[in-house]
Amino acid sequence: MLVQLKNLFKWVTVAGNRTFLLKDINLEVEEGEFISIMGPSGSGKSTLLNIIGMLDGFDEGEYNFLHESVHKLKEKQRAQLYKQYIGFVFQQYHLIDELTVYENIETPLLYQDVKSSERKAMVADMLDRFNIVGKKDLFPTQLSGGQQQLVGVARALIAKPKLILADEPTGNLNSKQGEEIMELFNELNKEGVTIIQVTHSEKNAAYAGRTIHLLDGRVEQQVNN
Amino acid sequence: MIRNFLKVAWRNLWRNKLFSFINIVGLGLAIPFALLSLMQAQSAYEFDNFHPYPDRTFRIITDVTDNVGTKTKYALSPVAAAEQLKQGYPYIDQSTFVVRDFGWQLNNRLKTIDVNSIYVEPAFFDIFGFQLAKGTRPVEPNTLVLTKEKAEVFFGTVDPVGKTLSHPDYGEFTVTGVLKPYKRNTHLRSDIMVSMATYKRIAKDTVLTSLSGFTYVLLKPGIQDKNLDAALTAIASKLNKQAASLSLKEKFQFRKQYITKLAPDFDDLRGNSYVESLLDLGVNFGFALALLLLAGFNYVNLTLARSLSRSKEVGVRKVAGALRYQLVWQFICEAILVALLALVVGFIMLKLMEQFSYVNWFTWEVDNKIVIWGVFIVFAVFIGVLAGFIPARILSRFQPAKVLKGTISPASFGKMGLRNSLVVIQFVATSLFIFLTATLYSQFKYMATDNENFNREQIYNISLNGDHRLLKNDIAANRSVERTGMVSTPFGGSSAQCAIKKNNQEQNTEASYYAADADFVSNMNLQIIAGKNLPASISDSVSDFILVNEKALATLGLGTPQEAIGKVIHLNNSRQVTIQGVVKDFCYYMYQFATRPLVLQYNPSQFHVLSIKTKTAVDDGVFKSEINSIWKKYHPHEELAFSNYQKDMYDRYFPGRDMRFMGMFCVVVLVIAVMGLLGIVTYHTERRVKEIGIRKVMGASVPAIIRELSRSFIKLIIISAGIALPLSYMAGYVFINLFTYNDGINILLLCLLFCSIFAIALFTIIYKSMQAAAANPVKNLRTE
Fold it and tell me: Which residues of chain B make contact with A96, given a CB cutoff of 8 A?
């Protein structure tokens, strides 16, 4: 089992009142799954994704990742864990504007102490695979949204993670570009990468094997496609 | 990784050109002063390294223990020690004694110059690396050698060897030689070197043990220096015995110092002129460091104020697996890059300063360039780490989840109040400093160009020699000349003294004495408030009629000027003279001090200077050649000594280089203060970007938003002005009253300066607010 959430709660206290962002979430994700999380605005989708990605903490419950108890780890160990196993894709791409396509893709490797020659080979592979070799020296602002997201996905994949977390990866793209990204996810999933995506679109959700519907911080229903 | 850091840093700098420029220049402006201090420190280790026998030349220093057992360390030693070292020690090659005497003034007839002097024995020139460019060593009493620089000041292009200079107390000195230019970094630095024979003639103290000078020893080659230690112990015990027999309570102990290891002074020796002690170096550096801290603080503020633009990068890097320390390093690397670029700017600034505002109380060159560059670079890296550390810590703290969601405001450090008060303090200090500099400037300017006390305009002085009546008549006949007067020495330098008293029963009073004629008094536009000018005379004998100033009347108790006319006083115990007229008190020497009693008398034997007043302004060169051709008729073998009085006085009273240096410092301080303000304004506008967007959507006009944004800063500026104005006025008042003769505080200048400082501040605020107000609200309100 890759991810296991047990009775997970998260809340914020405003003016003495607890507002629950997540209530009693129980979720199990097996390796190789493709999961969509859906729900209206404010239902806790992104919060859940951030918790799974260890970018955000929670207040109660258990989170096991590859049999490690995440809630018991120190920040440094958590960073070690997610930089090794998790890749992120964002709606706003979040590429570093000062770096070229090549350097953006390379960044995660820098933080994993991969040797220079090895880095070069890995980035070259990735550029090749996504057909963006010609664009490797361009800066993010010189690319279209679809291309930027492609780079975003390439960056998420470069460190060969077990799990990809995507927060509305197609939200800023037109339908054709969105479709391409989803096809790519589908392919990756077939190669064995586990994917969890947050989406608003029924059509995109349908690419996944399972859809989890959230409402007001609760899991309303889980549907196997 | 480092390469990646530097790449990002460089691209960031390049993308925000304006901000990078401000940061680099801001730091760069503060750096030259630190570089100067560093050079100072290094040059302290390169002191006295040009002497021919560095490995066997020593200075003998003295530890004096008094009767209660307190030990005091002196760089000086008693002359007796030097005398004894000269004899009876076969391994000593040479030994010499040097006496320093500050505060000399020498006069070449036309002008008086302050000089530093040392008395030296002939052997001095064998032991040390001071070489003569021409002439011979000073041996006889009242002989001296000049530095090249001073030779030019006194004699211009004329060969000074054989010429004379006069000292108000010690009489005439003959110049026997001119020194080659020597390295400034020596504890023996001086403008003139006077023969020791002179000192022996004039020295008053004959106490055996008085620490009157410096003793130096040159050992013979190959002699171990412990021999010298033994000699010193022997001499000390001998001297102590002698001292005891004279019932002196002090005990002496001598130590040797290698001549190359005098500086820096770790012992904090007394009487160690020109050798910087650790404290001196520290104070020097502290000053530069304070400026640098301010600049560094501004860097921190500006970087943090713009932290939003970097927050996304931090978030992304953290998500990509960066640990906090890696981000901290990245930002520190960036700061180091900025600091290194600032070092380049700073070095260029330093060179510019050297070009335009060379002040000789700083060292501008060091011997070992490689070491100093190493020091500079290490220093820049240090500054980078210092300035980068706080922003790095704060920026790397950003939570990726928050950053990437876009719910974060720019970072800051310290409380708002702290930063506001820092801005106020910076502005108050800047205003104060600028105003004081301006006051200093206007006082010097006043002293340098003043014509109220005595007239300097259209006056030329020439030095007289022998019989001058025919020369004078010829010059007076020149078409440009209005009047020619005679005087012993022009005003503006030290004068001769005389003794006056009302009658035989009273004590003498000292007065300044000028031998002058009536035309000189007219040339100087002296105001005669009672009686008449000196009688016009061309006689050869001394006149019995004198002019005095009001101060002389007050000192002698001669009543009002009108009452004093015709009264008889005793001059120099020998002569009875009649007061013919009284001149209004005026400043004829030092503006700092109240005027002294003054006597002007027709005394042809003491006339040394011809004061020529021209009818209109004339060209210096043309007029000089005209006068020169007249001069040559009477003195074919002698050079004409000719000077423009106005220029002489300007040079005497206006420290041009120092003022330029101060001016530069003012600019730097102002720029740093404005940068501080810019930082804080930027922070505020960036924080309020969303608010501004909403206000604009609600229909606020651009001017309304500018008003809204700048209100709180204008308050800060007004508070600063409220503190700075009275404070500066007070400080200026205190300063200006150090001068008895002053120009007063220039209120207009004060207001003008403040208006311009605050206009610059205001411009900064409005500019920044305008930028924020003009931005498109749609862009700012979009969440992603």
Answer: 8, 312-313, 316-317
Residues whose CB is less than 8 angstroms from the CB of residue B663 and which lie 6 or more positions away in sequence, other chains included: B357, B437, B441
Residues of A in contact with B12 (CB under 8 A): 98
Tens-digit pLDDT profile for residues B112-143: 888 889 999 999 999 999 999 999 999 999 99
Q: Judge contact between B120 and B189, C-beta under 8 A.
A: no
Residue A33 pLDDT? 93
Cβ pair B321:A111 closer than 8 A: yes
Kindly report the backbone phi and psi dihedral angles of residue B161, in degrees, each rounded to the nearest multiple of 5, phi listed first.
-65, 125
Position B782 scores a pLDDT of: 53
In chain B, which stretches have pLDDT less than 50? 783-784
**B67/B244 Cα distance (integer angstroms):** 11
Query: In this complex, how many residue pairs, one in chain A and one in chain B, have their CB atoms less than 8 Å apart?
Result: 63
Nearest to residue B118, comparing CAs of B137, B96, B141, B144?
B144
Specify the 3-state DSSP secondary structure of B145: strand
From residue B320, alpha-carbon distances to A31, A55, B130, B642 in Å are: 21, 11, 68, 81
pTM for the whole thing? 0.75
What single-letter amino acid sits at B116? N
Which amino acid makes up residue A39?
G
Nearest CA in chain A to B310: A96
The answer to whether the CB atoms of A94 and B8 lie below 8 A apart is no
Nearest neighbour of A111 by CB, restricted to B326, B400, B401: B326
**pLDDT at position B784, please?**
40
CA distance A172 to chain B (A): 10
Contacts of A172 in chain B (CB under 8 A): 784
The ipTM (two decimal places) reads 0.83
d(CA B640, CA B642): 6
Q: How far is A46 from chain B (nearest CA, A)?
A: 10
Contact A96 B12 (CB under 8 A): no
- Cα distances (Å, whole numbers) of residue B55 to B49, B90, B255, B409: 10, 18, 16, 66
